[in-house]
Amino acid sequence: MDQNFAKFLSVIFRDDLVVVTQNDDLHRPSLIITRSDKPEIYTEHVELSSGETYDKPVYAVLGLINLLSGPYLVVATDVVAKGAISLRARQPEGFVFQVKEVATLPIMKPALAPPLEKDENVFLDMVTSLLGAGDFYFSFDIDLSNSCQRSSKLSFESAQLPPAWAAIEDRFVWNSHLQAPFLPFVKDFGNFFPPIIQGFVQIKRTCEVNKAKFSYALISRRNKNRAGTRFNMRGADSSGNVANFVETEQIIQLADGRIFSGVQTRGSIPVVWTQEPTLDYEPKIQVKTAPSRAACQAHFDDQIKLYNRQVLVNLVKTKGSEKAIGSEYERQVAALDNPKLRYVGFDVYQHCGHSNYSKLSILVNQIQDDLHSQGYFSSGVDGSVQRTQDGVFRTNCKDCLDRTNLVQIVFAQLALIQQLRDAGILRSAAEFEKQQEFVQFFRSTWGDNGDAISTAYAGTPALKRDVTRTGKRTVQGIVDDGVNAVTRYYINNFRDGFRQDSMDLVLGNYTVNHQGHTSPFASSVESALLWLVLPLIAFLRFVAPRQVRALDLVLLVFWIGLAVLLGKLFKLRSHVIDYPRLGSRSKSVTVAPRPAKQE
């Protein structure tokens, strides 16, 4: 734990109560939770000398979740301070923390029969694996869910809630469902219950360009509406929510207090389409034209309200399997005939091939006027708003990952150069590339951002990450792409049902039924084919984190190929693919059982 975080909570278990208290302020009331299946929550001064104290420090309460044996307190037991930032000029800075580990503490004393206990362990594993994956962030003092521009329009002076909760952008707050029982207490216990975002945060306070010092922050906020994994969640729903929608904000804060900020977005093509896993490397894309009009209309109605004008940068291939979704997207945007929507198609592979990414300059020439007309947000030394951003670039490829990363860093660099020039720090764009230390940090930060978004959606770091980090293809980057592509195949077919279910459980899209529970994990068939993927698990756990040899990749491909071949020969794919089993994405097929977590 970083030294900047001095305060933490204690959780004390008594026979009839669970007490949550702050260690450095024993004179304030504690939060009390009764130990029942429908717990009462209240505040009270209590004597802390009795009871059993949880043996780890608790840095934040992330919420309460109801499972088979009753409610569990979800707490962050390890966090890392990422740095401090202010999203509003002349406002106090707030530290941002990355959640590294969570624990689920039972409010009641668990007493389940073995079959139910097995399911309970799977549910618990879902909660801890998702929230402890390293891509959730929180702050007690600033609202991470809102951009600088949205924050500038909010008034906190009369708010009855702490800044982190005063006017949250709920689409980016992943634990609002878990925190619902505690919301009445947020006013007085705001430093107990932070809202959390999923995505990426990087903060550096010691940046320097041309001897001018400033702080730099990159914040990505992943939308929880239509949250999911790569093949299990594609396109738009009837309300206009799209898969893998991410808002990314780049912020610089100068030593005199001036703030500059720019926002761009990414999100799945907003028509109704699916690509469910089938053991094929590229499952067939299915486009549903009839409901796509309403979905696309709803999506852009919402996006225009949020960001105003949209430059829609579509990077999918104009040939092959991606042509169908790209053509449908272009057709729907044309049918909307909205002057606030500008469609820009740019087939990255057609223009750049697999290595000549300097040709992205063709795209830059197409959007240069849009970049200047959109502008950016800035506030002055006195905190007054100097200018606002009018519109966004909304970029997508098929997954909104690898090609999107390449383009977003180009847009971000162009915006940053303009801001530094307007601030009087740069005289020309050519000067930027001479700032070697900062440029290296900038590219590395955007590379880390791309890896985080890719891991959340596809299960692996981004492909073409060497281009994002260095500006060119490298031999090691090509090898890494091969490893990540094969690993993605494994995860998307054999692990993503579990990851999808984890999101649905935590977000409240699936509710565990205490009474009359029928196991969603039960099966009368246990396919021997599952044993074929055990070497893959060993590879991913012990080999992949290290430098990968060619032989490792060959062995990995061999085992996956054997599993796929037998799956196709014996038509057992429905027993092998890890389809979601909870919520609306669950498959009505007989599936092999998931193992409970082994301690």
Q: Give the mean pLDDT.
A: 88
Distance between the termini: 24 Å
Unreliable residue stretches: 524-529, 587-593, 595-599
**Biggest sheet details:** 13 strands, mixed
Task: Briefly characterize the structure.
This protein is α+β, with helices and mostly antiparallel strands. The chain is 33% helix and 22% strand. The longest helix is centred in the C-terminal third of the chain and has 23 residues, at 436-458.
What do you see in this structure?
This protein has about 600 residues and is α+β, with helices and mostly antiparallel strands. Helix content is about 35%, strand content about 20%. It is built from 15 helices and 20 strands. Strands 6, 7, 8, 9, 10, 11, 12, 13, 16, 17, 18, 19 and 20 form a 13-stranded mixed beta sheet that branches. It has a 5-stranded antiparallel beta sheet with strand order 4-3-2-1-5, with no helix packed on it. It has a two-stranded antiparallel ribbon with strand order 14-15. Strand 18 (about 375-380) and strand 19 (about 385) form a beta hairpin. Helix 4 (about 290-305) crosses helix 5. The longest helix has 23 residues, at about 435-460. It is globular, with a radius of gyration of 25 Å. The relative contact order is 0.10. Mean pLDDT is about 90; it is low at about 525-530, about 585-595 and about 595-599.
